[in-house]
Amino acid sequence: MFRQLKKTLMATLIVTLALGQTLPAWADPADTLPDMGTSAGSTLSIAQEMQMGDYYVRQLRGSAPLINDPLLVQYINSLGMRLVAHANSVRTPFHFYLINNDEINAFAFFGGNVVLHSALFRYADNESQLASVMAHEISHVTQRHLARAMEDQKNSAPLTWAGTLGSILLAMASPQAGMAALTGTLAGSRQGIITFTQQNEQEADRIGIQVLQRSGFDPQAMPGFLEKLLDQARYSSRPPEILLTHPLPESRLSDARNRANQMPVVVVQSSAAFYLAKVRALGMYNSGRNQLTSDMLDSWAKGNIREQHAAQYGRALQAMEAGRFAEASQTLQPLLKAEPNNAWYLDLATDIDLGQKKNADAIARLKAAREIRTNPVLQLNLANAYVQAGQTNEAATILNRYTFTYKDDPNGWDLLAQAEAANGHRDRELAARAEGQALLGRLDQAITLLSSASAQVKLGSQEQSRYDARIDQLRTLQQRFRPYEKM
Description:
Main location: periplasm
GO molecular function, one term: metalloendopeptidase activity
Number of helices: 23
Structural class: mainly alpha
Distance between the termini: 38 Å
EC number: 3.4.-.-
Number of strands: 3
Low-confidence stretches: 6-30, 32-38, 157-163, 169-196
Order of helices and strands: HHEEEHHHHHHHHHHHHHHHHHHHHH
GO biological process, one term: proteolysis involved in protein catabolic process
Shape: flat
């Protein structure tokens, strides 16, 4: 991954109720919740959830230590969409995000947005365990647990309704303050909310384990991972953060184990991408700790072929991170020779080349890659290599196509702004920076930048019309988001 994309956006996000692009699917009777006396629709429609999700995810980008690593983002979204494809009652698109946080946790919120902490890679022994956490969060979304909780809160204590929403938003910006405010709000309503939350967790387990099995993963992974969490809680003075937002009584573990035992026994091998993602997450996003240990790499070096390759990739990654580029290149070379089109290896090889100022080698290797026209990770790498080589016209050509297709990726807009600045296209630079600010929820700044871009071009030109039209769109978005800003 090129160096510019390793920057993360700082702060933390925790939401008390853990909930998470596919086409809607009809509900399967097995995945339908028992009637809890509320449809959730009278409080929040699907359209409202989507709108709130859009608002909140922009706040997330602007305030949380989001990992924008293209390879890791691609991996967790690919894994997530595999699960979503086997879920029922899917009413919204799904998007998966990774936060650089050493506290094990996962949660979801309006509009199918699922957030994973990077610590999950450290604690998950295999891909099925990681998938079990994601299936649980997906099930919170498909069963609309957050909307149901808010419906219940509104009906039982109308005066705390706005406070609940406001506290959730506060938790996005300041975890400690937000959790304290939300705890106080709920405590002031009624004790029954705790039971309701535990019920949601068991339902998400029940639905999630079905999704897990249908997706081809080991259903035993769910009780296995829950047991790991309980063990941590037993032998630690402070329970894992995930247990503060996901109640885990012994009955929940027993229920998950009983359900898994009723399913066919399967042997599931973790994918090569899982091992490479785990190495990358531990080696590059470790909150200052040395989590990619020699013991782990030594153990993998004696394991199956996927583990062996991941161990070698990990050693090359460690050398590159330490600035030992020649050693990194030598370690990576056998892997790259065996799989010259592997995006994980190509990405690391690009970093090594650029670290050695071998820009031409990086460009040549990426242009020769078989998937250069279809893999967004490789396209970003090539664009960055062009920027580093001073070939910014070529970079802008790639990035204009990229940002048209992947409008919600801050990486593309950041690189495009760099390329257009180098090309001397001030209006295009400002417009690209505006889109980046809009993704962070900073709509005022985005409008200011676009106004400046509009002033840079000829009066009445097509470019000015385009910039002015975008300003109008952002102002409409501001109006749409205004109610949430007041919560």
